[in-house]
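--- STAGE predict ---
source: upstream dedup step, 1 unique chain passed
mode: sequence only
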Amino acid sequence: MEEYALIMRHEDGQKIASPEQMQIWMKQTMDWIGSIAAQNKFVSGTGLSFAGAKVVRPHHVVTDGPFGEIKETIGGFIIVKADSVEEAAEFAKGCPVLQGEGNSMEVRKIAKNDGAH
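--- STAGE serialize ---
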């Protein structure tokens, strides 16, 4: 069994949900993670905050950000155990982030020290 990162991508970083909508999405997300954990396939995960964020670019340039004016932001990720990338993608299909217009889930195998890429 391999580990996969399920990365939550938000297309429009300028849209801000109401506190009530955020609470609904948080419950839906916790229920989604709970369903994966019930199968003993949840490894870890977290949301990502913009507070205190920095962007580091070549030549040691450091700026505040990322900011909402960028086209796409990463909202968080979870790591799951799965027998295949197809199984991991099935988990991703249940993520509430997909309710947002243009949002997506990226599924990536976690690289191990076995030389596989």
